[in-house]
Amino acid sequence: MHVKSVNLETVCGITSKLPENEKPEIAFAGKSNVGKSSLINGLMNRKSYARTSSQPGKTQTINFYNINDLLYFVDLPGYGYAKVSEELKAKWGKMIEKYLKTSKQLKLVFLLIDIRHEPSANDKIMYDWIVHQGYEPVIIATKLDKINRSQKDKQLKLIRSGLGAKSDTRILPFSALSKQGLEEIWACMEEALGF
Ligand code: GTP
Ligand code: MG
Fold it and tell me: In CATH, which of 3.40.50.300, 3.30.390.50, 3.50.50.60, 3.40.50.970 is domain 6-14+21-193?
C-alpha cells in the first residue's frame, strides 16, 4: 500500500477515553525499546513522525495514527520499563489490556520481540494474553541488522519456543535500519484487512 497521508489523530493517556473508530485498527505491542515506533515510522515511510528514543519508555500513551483515512496504526506503550513506579506500570498494563479487550475495530496485533534476546516473562504473558483475547498475534523479530545472518534461524527458533507459540504462528524478521521485512509486514496487514 502506498501511504499518502498520516495523521496522529488520537493520543490516549491513562485517564482518557478510548476512541470508537470506524476504520480498522492494527496494534503494535511489545516491551519498551523493542522498536514499535520505529516500525510504525518505517511503515508510514516517515523518518520520525512517531517519536522514538534510545531511552526506553518513550511512548507513554496509546497513539492512533490515521493512515490514508483507511486504517489506524495503534502504537502502544512498551511494557517492562523499569524506571517507573509499580503503580504506573500497573496503570499502563490496564490501559493496554482495556484497549485490546474493548476495541471493536482491532483486526491484527503485532507483538514485537528483539531478535537478539530470548522472550522475557512479560513477553510470554503478553503473547498468552493476546491469544486469550481471541487474536492470533503475528510476531515481528526486530533489530535484524544487529545480528549476523548466520544467527537468524537460531534466534527465530528461540523466540518461537520462548513464547510457546504455535507452529503456524508467523514470525517476521524486520530491521528499521535496512527496512528488510517491510514488504512481508505489509502483505500480512493487507491479508488481515482483506485489501
Ligand atoms: P517505547 O516507546 O519506549 O515503548 O519504545 P519503542 O518500542 O517504540 O522503541 P523505539 O522505536 O523508540 O526504538 C528504540 C530504540 O531502538 C531507538 O534508539 C531506535 O532507533 C532503535 N531501533 C528500533 N528499531 C531498530 C532496528 O531495527 N535496528 C536498530 N539497529 N535499531 C533500532
Ligand atoms: Mg514508542
Answer: 3.40.50.300
Q: Is the CB of 63 under 6 A from ligand 1?
A: no
pTM for this prediction: 0.96
Nearest alpha carbon to residue 109 among 139, 79, 141: 139
> Could you tell me the residue ranges of all domains in the chain?
6-14+21-193
Residue with cell string 496522529:
8
Ranges assigned E (strand) in the chain? 6-12, 25-30, 62-67, 71-75, 106-114, 138-142, 171-173
The model's pLDDT over 11-50, given as tens digits with 9 standing for 90+, comes to: 998 888 999 999 999 999 999 999 999 999 999 999 999 9
Q: How far apart are CA 100 and CA 107, in angstroms?
A: 10
The rounded Å distance from CA 62 to ligand 2 centre is 10
Q: Is the CB of 48 under 6 A from ligand 1?
A: no
